[in-house]
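Before we proceed, please read the two lines closing this message. Tell me what the C-alpha cell row says about the fold.
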Amino acid sequence: MDSIYILLNIVVLLALIGLLIWMQKKHFSFTKRVFTGLGVGIVLGALLQLIYGTGSEVLTETTEWYNIVGRGYISFLMMIVVPIVMVSIIQSIINLERTAELGKMSAWIIGILISTTMVAALIGIGTAIVFDLNAEQIEMGQAESERATSLETSLGEVEEQSTPQRILNFIPSNIFLDMTGERPTSVIAIVIFSIIVGIAVLGVRRKNPEQAEMFTKMVNAVYAVVMRIVTLVLRLTPFGVLALMANTVASTNFAGILELGKFVIASYVALLVMFILHLVLVGIFGLNPFTYLRKAFPVLGFAFTSRSSAGTIPLNIQAQKNSLGVEQGVANMSASFGATMGQNGCAGIYPAMLAVMIAPTIGINPLSPGFIIQLVLIIGISSFGVAGVGGGATFAAIIVLSSMGMPVALAGLLISIEAFIDMGRTALNVNGSMVSGTLTSRILKNLNVKTFNDKNAIEENTSL
C-alpha cells in the first residue's frame, strides 16, 4: 500500500514540474517561475508532512525520490562551479589593462566581506542580548547530546590547526585534486591558480604575443561553451527549487521550531537586520536598493532552499554580471570568495549569538565591552580562515567558541532548528557576496549602471 502512496506523490511532483514547463513555454519570466516553484514546494511539503507525518516510511521514501530532482540539480550546479570559476577568472584577467587592477579588486572584495561579517557579529550579539538568549533555557535531549559529542570530536581537529595554517590551506598544491572539490578550500585554491594563469598570460603577451593570442582564443572558445552549459543547467532552477523546498518543509521538525521559537525568531531578526543593512549600503553608494533586491531575489531564493553557498556560485555570477551590471572579473571573484570566507550569516551572526548564549553558563558577562571586542575580532579573523577546516556555520562556531574558552558542546543545543535557521543564513551569505561584488564594481567605476537600472535586464538574461 505504501508503494501506491509513494507513486502518487511522485506523480504529483511530475505534474507540478509540468506546470513549470508550461509556464516556461508561455514565456513567464524566470523570476516568476522560480518563486512559483518555491511557493508550490512549500505547499506540497506541508501537505506531505500533514498527511503522512514526520518520520513516516512513505515520507522518507518520497523525499528520496524528490532528491533526484532537488539534490540532482545541486549536483549539476556543483559540476559547473570549477569550470566557470576557472575559465571566467582567467578570461577576466586577460582582459585587464593593468595587473594593479587585480589587487584593488581583490582587496575591496575581501575587505567588504570581512568588515560586513564583523558588523554582522555585532548585530548577532545585540539580538541575543535583546532577546535574552541563554543556553540554560534549552533542555538537552538525546539528539542534542549526540550532537555535542560530535562537536567535541571536531574540536580536536580544529585545534590542530592555527589560523595561519588554515589560511595556508588556501594555497593550491595539487590543482587537479582541488578540481575534484576534495578540500573545503578547493574553490579559493582554484581562484588563486586561475589568477596565476591569467597573470602568466599577460606576461607571455609582452614577450610572445602570438602564443598569448592563441591561448586567449582557446580560453574564449572554452568560455563560450562553459557559459552555454551554465545556461542549460540554470534552466532547471525552478524544478530544483520546487523539489528542494518540498523536501525541506516535509522534513522540518516544526515541534522543535515551536519549542525553540524564541531562538528562531531572534536568529531571523538578526538576519533581517543585516539584510536591511546590505540594502542600506547599496543605497549609500548611489544605487537603488529595491532594484538590487528585485534582481537578486531569484538567486537568494535558491540559496534559501538549497542551503549551499558553493552551489549558488553559477547563479550568483550570472545575476551579478547580467542583471546588476557588475564587471565580469569582480562578479567571478566576489561569488567565489563569498562562498568560502566572510560569510555574514554562518561566520558572523551565528557564532556571535552562540557565544552570547553560552557566556552566562560559565560566568562571563556578555555585556562586557572586553568580551564584545574580543568576540568581534575573533569572528573577523576566523571568518577568513574558517574554510581551512571545513567551512560552514558549525566550524565557524567551533573556532570562535574554542578561541573564547567556551564549551563547544553547548552549540549542539540548537540541532533541532539548525536546518531551518541555516536556510536564512545561506541566503544572507550569498547576498553578502553579491553586495561585495556590486559595491566593488561601483568603487572601481566599472559598474554598468545602465544594466543595473534596466528593469528588463533580469528577464532578458535569465528567461532561460
In short: The chain has a mean pLDDT of 83.
